[in-house]
Each structure stands twice: as structure tokens, then as C-alpha cells.
Amino acid sequence: MTFERMWQDLHPVGRSATSGGYFRQPFGSAERECHAWFLEECARRDLTVRHDGNGNTVAWWGDPDGDGVLTGSHLDSVLDGGAYDGPLGVVSALAAVDLLRERGFLPRRAIGVGAFAEEEGSRFGLACLGSRLATGATTPAAARELRDRDGVPLLDAMAAAGLEPELGRSTLLDDVAVFVELHVEQGRDLVDRGHAIGVASEIWPHGRYRFDFAGEANHAGTTRMEDRHDPMLTYAMTALAAAKQARLAGQRATFGRIDVAPNGTNAVPSRVTGWLDARCATDADLAALLGEIERQAQGRAERDGTHLVVTAESVSGAVVFDPDLAARIARDHETGDWPVIPTMAGHDAGILSAAGVPTAMIFVRNPTGVSHSPDEFAPMADCLAGVDALADTLERLAG
Fold first, then answer.
1. Closest CA to 67 of 221, 176, 143, 164
2. Looking at CB atoms within 10 Å, which of 21, 71, 250, 350 has the fewest?
3. Which CATH topology does 3-204+318-398 take?
4. Per-residue pLDDT tens digits for 327-356
């Protein structure tokens, strides 16, 4: 089956008729439909499928025997997300297996196609949850405490999806000697360079932090401005300070989600919770940026008569991919060497790399530069170039 046909089959699943964005939240109906599609495609290719109790799946072409070459990505999306982030890597991996077979290639090392669970953290708040659990980067005890926005525990959500959860480090990745993840680029670096394909050099350190602002609920009409203890004002100043400090430092800071109580039009809030996503070039830069944002927020809280508590929910340190592996993948192609570029987005590849697995990433050009949005896009010609690039890479690594 061609890439185009597989993409056509997967494209409508979980897509909003209103916004055109995707709602493929982990262990929900749309994500499970995508996973069922993945298993059907693996069966069509006679791949040997293995699962773990964390929701991850790997399908092997051949016997890995401790020396396998794994590729793939994830099938879940952010809320109202794009079509390409994650699924492009899974569909391209299956298409690359097809292409290698068409070439008559017989792998010396087994090739696996993987689909990791809850990569985005869009439901349970912890990005790359499946790969973190599988590698031991997150403990089962910590994962069991996770709840979604409706208060549903992780284990209950997995069970409701028909899974038999057994959280913790698994043997699923024990046969993986190298991992290559293909992904749509989440920026415009390749567009600016005029290349359809690139290779990752590193992932910026990044974190998600919960800011809990507490104040005093009161009447919006009868309470004088000078008598208020309004946590919304503290939050608003904090969001502006985060944007300013990140801009001055050349880093990234985003408050993209808030929760307000009692959330009434005619009431001063009693509580505002905001989630900060911060990304920086180095671990030290990330710590410095967060420290300055928190310092300014606490200062404003004192002036507003409010209270602030900051909690780190998910923090990933800097990841530098194996430079020799990146160079080996990037050099000597018909179109010339592929550029080696950094990324500011987190990926399962970063988790496996931090766990000691030699890891690389291949990026496919995104002409809009937009991601985590319905406007995320990659032209079919570039997607097919990505399949060729991944097939060539797997042939180099598994031949």
C-alpha cells in the first residue's frame, strides 16, 4: 500500500469538522482508531507485533536479537492539533519498509516500527509518557498519580480503552540498538535553507510548570479596585513578564492554558492556574528564565495580596544526539548533504537518547512553519522525499 493511500485512510480520523484540527487524545476513541489502523497495517506486512503495559507498540521485520533498528513516532495529538506531528513518522516508517522490500533489500539487522503512547502530554500533562515509562525515566508511582482534566486516572483511561496496564520499565526496547524518528519540522529552518530533508543535532531543554495563583473571591461590582486581591491580575502580569524575558533572552516562554475559579463574569476570581511552557538553548538558560519569571511573579503577588506556588510538572534536560550517527545519516546523498539542525520541540527520540540508545531524527520540511495547529502542513512531494530518506537511512543502518 502506498504512502498516499495510507495517509488518505488515516487523515480523517479524529479531525474536527469545525476547525479542521485533530483531537486524538491518548486512549480516547480517535487515538485508539489510529492504533487499530496501525495494527492492521503491521499485520498486512507480516510484522511481529509486541506491546508493553505502558501503551507502546513495536512491530518487527525480522528478529531483532538485541541489535534492532527502530523507527516510528506517535499517533496522539495536541488539542486541535495538526495532521503531521507524530503520524507522519509512523506512516513513513511503514512506507519505508514497503520501499525497502520493493528494492529487494534484506535487512541484516531487524527493522522495527514503533508507536509510542501519550507523546504530547495533551491528556495527562506529562510529555512522552509512554517512552518515559518504558525507559524508566518516569516511575510507575508518579504515573499512577496522573489525572486528566476530568479527573480520570491514567490507569482507568487505559483500562477503558481495552488495555491491560502494567506501568514501568519494559523489555519492549531491550532489542533496540539504534532509533531513528522521522518528524515534520516544527519551524522554518529547512524552508530558509531550501532543503526538504534535515537531520537533528539536538533538542533544547524544556519544561512545563504549573503556576497556582490564589486570591479572594468577591463581587465584580461592589468591590473597590483597591480592596481586591485578584489572582487574575497577578497571572496577567506574569504572562507578560514571561513573554518579555523570553524575548530579551532569545528563548521561548508560553502560557497556553489557564483554569479559573469560580470562572464567573461578575466575580473576582479566587484562583487562577496557568501552565507555562518554557524552552531554552541550555539547561542553565532554562533555570535562569524560570527563576526570573517566578521572581517577578512573586513580587507582583505581594503587591496584589495574592499567593503563588510554582510546581514543575515535566522537565527535560538538553539532548545532544549522537553526532557521528547524525553525520552518517546526513552525508552523501544525490541532493548533497542534508543540513544538521537543532529543534526546540520535545520528542520520544530525546527520551530514548537520554536513556543511552543511539538516536537520530529526520525532519521533513514544513513550508508554513506552523505546528500544533490545524495549519501544520507538509507537501506530498516532501512527504515522499521523507519516505525515501528514511528508507535510505534504514538501509544504511540495517544493511
1. 176
2. 250
3. Aminopeptidase (3.40.630)
4. 999 998 888 899 999 999 999 999 999 999
